[in-house]
Amino acid sequence: MTDNAMIKIQNISKWYGDFCVLKDCATSVDRGEVVVVCGPSGSGKSTLIKTVNGLEPVQSGQIFVGDVEVSDPNSDLTTLRSKIGMVFQHFELYPHMNVRENLCLAQEKVLHRSRDEAVARSEALLERVGLMGHIDKMPGQLSGGQQQRVAIARGLAMDPIAMLFDEPTSALDPEMINEVLDVMVELAEEGMTMMVVTHEMGFARKVANRIIFMDEGEIIEDRPTLEFFTNPESDRAKDFLSKILNH
Amino acid sequence: MGDFDFQVIEASLPFLWQGLQVSLMLTGLAMVGGIIFGTLLALMRLSKFRSLSLVAATYVNLLRSIPLILVIFWFYFLVPLAIGRPIGNFYSALIAFVIFEAAYYSEIMRAGIQSVSKGQVSAGQASGLNYWQIQWHIVLPQAFRNMIPILITQGIVLFQDTSLVFVVSLRDFMTASSIVAKTEGRLVEMYLFAACVYFVFCFAGSYFVRRLKNRISV
Predict the structure, then answer these.
(1) What is the dotted CATH code of the domain comprising B6-217?
(2) Where do the structural domains in chain B lie, given as residue ranges?
(3) Which chain B residues are Cβ-neighbours of A78 within 8 angstroms?
(4) Rounded-to-10 torsion of CA B97, B102, B107, B111
(5) What is the pLDDT of residues A157-204, one digit of tens each?
(6) Pick from A55, A90, A164: CB nearest B125
(7) Strands A84-87 and A162-166
(8) Which of B117, B125, B127 sits opposite A158 (nearest CB)?
């Protein structure tokens, strides 16, 4: 673990009753690093990523983002969360607000930006994800891919220090996956610190510095991308890769 | 038989109109108050603090087990005792309705709040919004919109229930009709007319709700 680590996860465990969702997980993400978390469904990868901004509490272990301890109940989580963007599998745009308001809400209420500032920032980001023309539309009028790009812009509008992606393309029709991945690749290349839960191994190969492979709540492998793909250590990772890459 | 006199209705229309205004005003204000108070109760009921949740649950279950007419009666006698001066039968009836209807509206709003996906709350939390901001800007607008037809339907029931204010001799539409019926000796005509008026209002309300449901579901 280097001093450059922005996100530090130290031996966290979590149970739902008797069921262990996370088993003694430890890893870290450096500033500017892109880490992809993969593994079979139910392996705890979504839960792991949600512990980083405290959406999922843990029962033991510690999580640090910068110098804030997320796992400390006395920490100011709302301030921390405003600095970490999150993108969800099902977009979670606010359906009763148009695209502009979706982007402005937290900017105004949390960062206390003026209306003009918030709108200007929103417009710049929508321009960047190629959706400026849709600023007055309601989320329901957009395709899945467009909604997810708006959701990414919404996260970026807070000028986050890191972005978390929880299966951002799993709910999309195949023809819309690339438009979302393109935005994410661009973001990674600009040096954004990212933690991405995904099955898109092409994306992982292209931009990830490291791959974390999970199974049954445990981190089985945590290695540089090339190593992971060419020479996975565990049988479980080999098995997973053969299933996901062979078609 | 055959000796009906519907003239009496026309002659007493201004008087009846005053009564109807009281009924409509009581319904409108009690709906607004009941929905606001009911929403607070619903938030308490769904709170992670067990004591708040218990207080709200007790309140709702208690109020739903008492006849409305008793609540109206109580407040007429209790409120002056509590504050040391009479507040008049309109306000005592209004408070009674708000208190009583809140129990029903809270159950409707609770269902509405639960109909908003948990992911919406997560999205709000993830962007750093606090509990009240999430409820006010994200959850409640959606809950309210999902529940509008049921809230109005409950309002129609409330409109019919306002006729119970005769127990505190508040001159609503029903009481006004009743007074005319008795003083003019035209019971059948007046009660028939009163029934028609209630029917028209409630039927129009239900029709509006059906239209609204179709619009929302599209």
Answers:
(1) 1.10.3720.10
(2) 6-217
(3) 125, 128-130
(4) 120
(5) 999 999 999 999 999 999 999 999 999 999 999 999 999 999 999 999
(6) A55
(7) parallel
(8) B127
